[in-house]
Amino acid sequence: MVQSTQDADISLLNINQGITCLTSGVLNPQLGYDSLLVGTQTNLLAYDVHSNSDLFYKEVSDGANAIVLGTLGDISSPLAIIGGNCALQGFDYEGNDLFWTVTGDNVRSLALCDFDGDGKTELLVGSEDFDIRVFKEDEIVAEMSETETITALSPMYGSRFGYALSNGTVGVYDKTARYWRIKSKNHAMSIHAFDLNSDGVCELITGWSNGKVDARSDRTGEVIFKDNFASSIAGLVEGDYRMDGNTQLICCSVDGEVRGYLPGGEEMKGNLMDASAEQDLIRELSQKKQNLLLELRNYEENAKAELNTQLKEADGRRGVIPANTQLQTALSVNLGSDSQSAHVELCISTTNDTIIRAVLIFAEGIFEGESHVVHPSLQNLSGCVRVPLTPPKDVPVDLHIKAFVGYRNSTQFHVFELTRQLPRFSMYALSSPDSAAEPLSYVNCTMNERAQRIVMWLNQSFLLPEDAELQSAPFQVCFTSLRNAGQLCIKIKPGGEISISTDDIDLAGDIIQSMASFLAIEDLQVEADFPAYFEELRKVLVKVDERHAVNQRLTADMAEHSNLIRSMLVQAEDARLLGDMKNMKKRYIELYDLNRDLINQYKIRCNNHTELLNNLKAVNQAIQRAGRLRVGKPKTQVITACRDAIRNNNFNMLFRIMRVGTASS
Amino acid sequence: MGSWLGATRAAAHGCRGNGGAAAVGGAGPGAAERWGRRGAARRRRRRCAALLLAMELSLARVDYLQVGVTSQKTMKLLPASGRKATQKVVVGDQDGVITCFGIKKGEAVPVFKTLPGQKIARLELGGALNTPQEKIFVATGSEVRGFTKRGKQFLSFETNLTESIKAMHISGADLFLCASYIYNHYCDCKDQHYYLSGDKINDVLCLPVEKVNCITPVLACQDRVLRVLQGSDLLYEVEVSGPPTVLALNNGNGSDSGEEIVFGTSDGKVGLIQITGSNPVHKWEIGNEKKRGGILCIDSFDILGDGVKELLIGRDDGVLEVYNFESADDPVLRYDHALSESIASVQGGCVGKDGYDEILACTYSGWLTGLTTEPIHREGGSGEELKLSQEMQSKISSLRSELEHLQMKVLQEREKYQQSSQSSTAVSSVPAFSVNDKFTLNKDDASYSLILEVQTAIDNVLVQSDVPIDLLDVDKNSAVVSFSSCDSEPNSNFLLATYRCQANTTRLELKVRSIEGQYGTLQAYVTPRIQPKTCQVHQYQIKPLSLHQRTHSIDHDRPMNTLMLKGQFSFAEIHSWVVFCLPEVPEKTPAGESITFYFQNTFLGTQLESTYRKGEGFFKSDNISTISILKDVLSKEATKRKINLNISYDINEESVRYTLKLIHPKLEYQQLLAKKVHLIDALKELQVHEGNVDFLLPKYRSILEEADQLLEEYKKQPAHLERLYGMITDLFIDKFKFKGTNVKTKVPLLLEVLDGCDQDGLIAFFEAAA
């Protein structure tokens, strides 16, 4: 740690690596003061600022994208939990790795929160696959799907927590239910829970990319306070910065402007907005009244229009359409043609001679933005619009459809609004069982369920041409993926035995999870085999070893080179002092060459490292996928067992666990 | 859409702009501290200055009442009568209803209300000269009606105008009316004088007769000219800097001479001009540096109580401003307040409570809002405060019960409507709602802004364009924009974007950047949050020479290229082609045999002169690209109508060099700016590391010092450099197109030369490339 040259009260600690996350807090309860924790792409440093020494310095191969400090579940000592590429790791003050598990994708945000109200904290993990997962120690107790990467999580009060997404959404969850959310065109840079209005409940404070800071009620999302900075907010924290016993909310902008806010006093009664709240209420009520009056007038005018029922040209322009016009929608699977790839087709049509001027579909996660527009040119107008949809992920999506219905020359249109749900597995088309070879990979399990219930699940989750005939077990359905033509077969055998054959391990996991939640199954053990995937994984594991070896060799080389540099530099300087310019030049040229070599080596090291990271991520993902094939306790068991197998470098054991779910035979 | 994103209402709360900063103070004195490292002191100073001003004039906002949608200048305060000091308010809306009310104990008490009818375009007060002006006159359609202050109609004057009245002024027995292009003067309802203007008339005024002793009407015309008339003839024209939208007498009476008028323009400027008998004298002008909205209404009133009347200005972006005068020619902004929608009318007076002056504004959607000097929380006994909130409470509860009643009724009607959808003969009409839109070219950054305002909250807006255009981000706009993928074939969509508005957004501002030579239509589908849900489509033309703006004069000494057209076409035909090609040209064919318009390219500063008559047209420009675009579009238009055109052109080689010299400083400046901005981060890093910047070269030190301004400027003109490159490339291609050579292959070379940023090299390249 170095005292800064310009400011006596600033001390600098140089890490020599890009810092990816930072926190401070009580890590060692015996120490009696806070420790500093610094995460980088490869290491975690726990630092004792008071004695200017390291507590521990750990290599974390999965990187540290996010960090949180606190106690987790029944683990007694405080942990520094870091989230990296698909992995979560927790260290105590001695650097012992007391907690480890995997998650679906790169972790972007972490928080500790008493999610189920049992007095012990659970870990919330927000990751790049848009999911918020809740870990009760290493068991996943809940999973919430969001619409974008979760960039921030903040515990608020009890089981309530705030979250922020990379698309400008912030909101509050209570357990698995979303209380509210709002979306802004700006991005939330930082969120924090702080009781600004002294009502005993924390508000969600958000720092935005446009420099706005706002405090929103945890219950309604209503803004109770806001302020503006000249530039984007860099971070929000709370603390007693002035050492006067009052905790402040402190906001810092990227320009370096810092403002502190004290909570409002008792007399404010939670009302931080100015006194014109009543005025605003009156305004709001009047606006409502005006809207109602407007609506009434609309109906009156409509009644007038009804008196002369003859549809005239001019009426068409004004947007008068027959009252019995209806909008029909149909979802179907389109297998595509030469010019168009296979897709799910949404067909929207009117029931008479009216035309659809434009269709707006608002849906999350299936378009580039939040909406998709179909606007045919004037000559292509008709009463029917077909919209191709290709959801990239297997999640159920609500399609909020707005269709502008009128006539060709209308300047005003009726807006028909309706919502359709796109089933979870809509990108799979029903195919005949014998059309293609059945995939080699499979998952087998036993569910004590009637076949009818499974047929219900099929109807709900797939786009079936007509309702699948109610069949008694055994029966078999086959699907073809519209994305990559992969096959999927679901066989129901008598005795509740179910077999799912597909080469896509993710899809198998999704199907198991979807069935389990539909049929309310708590624990499910399966037998699985994915030969192709396992083979790939084996290769990856070999690669990981190779990379590790390369890394070691490179490190050794580097050490050697640095010795060489030292001696060369001494020689060169000697030559300079002796006035032997020729030799000096020679040495320096050599040094230059060596330097170039080092730089090249460094590049190789970098590449090697990225490669290693990718491979490690693949391994973590594999464990997570193996877990997703099971439900409940077996799921946790698989993950822990896999970890142990990897620790012991026992690959055969690993694959065995992935297949049957346990280590022991 | 609000429902699927949960509590979107809350988001709107965040957008409505009332004083959050004050609440910081409220959280305890000095509750908010600032430890800014950079520029904090400056910011603090600015804050203090703002605070001082606010102390001088602090006005509290009161919303009185909402009427229908209102047009510009349709609200007036009646003079106080008898011993009562408070004034009555009279307002006319687009439903044709005139509402007159006074305020008693904070409640609006109606005096009279007329029945609905045609849209009211203007409302003015009149009366015999030198008596209180308390007769109410409204212009609806082509008719002028007069009402007494009690609401009794005493006049219904059906004018002989074929169009509806757009502007009106009343002075004693003299009535001045304007339709789109026609001005008419009546005295005692008898036709006196008539004038046909070259462009649309936005407002009319007459200098006070009692002071200037002759009738001197002034017309504010769209072609950036005030036309001063005498009888039926034009006395002279006054050129102003933007299209004037509103006129007012300075101090309400034209000052001592009676000759001073204040005008406001649609690009947000305000100026004072003295109209003497022979020539105009420009006194002062307030620019629009803050890029606020266009001016809709002006009034003079002494709200500060210092004995001098202040200037009150209402803008179309909802900003209300108060200027006062330290000296007669130096207006200083004293106060501003942002309402959420455009301010159609403004007047100062005493309305809410005896003894407290206030500014009353009437907004587009018909809200009558007062900014009063009466403090909201009186510091007297607690009893009074209680009473005040009781008033509020009763107001709120009465509103609530009214709402409940309405809700019931609406539910019934809704059911009826639903039932009608079962019948096969019934029709369903779309409720009409009014959209206030404005599509204008901004001179500063050569982009178009599209402003959409609806009387109720907007749900979403779909923007579609069949030409390639860029949609730019607007800070004020809080709506969530989402771009949809486009299919240029076969549906000719080049832009499809949806704006999903936060709750309570009634006004939406978009910014669009066009490319000259690419023309077509921009369409906006506006869906408000009213039931039954409907949407309205509005179309805006992107013209071939979209970045050109009308000017009063051009520099005739520049080397010009000429395009000559000859053929069997009428004056009206060639005029319609010019209207098609260029913005700001009146649609009506001008009177006379020939006409000349001057234009300036807002981006490059090049110019265009167009002179045409029946059978021939001349277009002169120093920019070859302009001529090239005109040639292409005109020949296409003529072919469409099967008219044989004889097109000849006279290309002046010198003009290319001249234009390049004109552009080059801009290019150099932008390249330098880009370079400097590029360096800022690195320099800042150095500064932090080294602790000081003494070791840097002065030029780098100055970059650091000016970093904020540089960044701001850079941010203000996104893609400026790219656009310049594009236009120079066009110039290059067009130059050789006229020679019959295709030089598209040489464009990469040109770009290299451009990066070199050497003027002589560039000119040499242009000359050598052939």
From TrEMBL, chain A:
PANTHER family: BARDET-BIEDL SYNDROME 2 PROTEIN. Residues 428-519 form the BBS2 platform domain. It comes from Dromaius novaehollandiae. Residues 339-425 form the BBS2 GAE domain. GO terms for biological process: non-motile cilium assembly. It is found in: Cell projection, Cilium; Cytoplasm, Cytoskeleton. GO terms for cellular component: BBSome; ciliary basal body; membrane; motile cilium; neuron projection. The keyword Chaperone does not apply. Residues 275-309 form a coiled coil. This is BBSome complex member BBS2. Residues 531-628 form the BBS2 hairpin domain. Residues 109-216 form the Ciliary BBSome complex subunit 2 middle region domain. Residues 633-659 form the BBS2 C-terminal helix bundle domain. The keyword Acetylation does not apply. SUPFAM superfamilies: WD40 repeat-like. Residues 3-70 form the Ciliary BBSome complex subunit 2 N-terminal domain.
From TrEMBL, chain B:
It holds the Pfam family Beta-prop_BBS7. The gene is BBS7. Residues 389-416 form a coiled coil. Residues 75-373 form the BBS7 beta-propeller domain. Residues 548-650 form the BBS7 platform domain. One of its GO terms (cellular component) is axoneme. The keyword Coiled coil applies. Residues 653-766 form the BBS7 helical hairpin domain. InterPro entries: Bardet-Biedl_syndrome_7_prot (IPR016575), BBS7_GAE_dom (IPR056334), BBS7_hairpin (IPR056335), BBS7_pf_dom (IPR056333), Beta-prop_BBS7 (IPR056332), WD40/YVTN_repeat-like_dom_sf (IPR015943), WD40_repeat_dom_sf (IPR036322). The keyword Coiled coil applies. This is Bardet-Biedl syndrome 7. Transmembrane segments: none annotated. GO terms for biological process: intracellular protein localization; non-motile cilium assembly. The lineage of its organism: Eukaryota, Metazoa, Chordata, Craniata, Vertebrata.
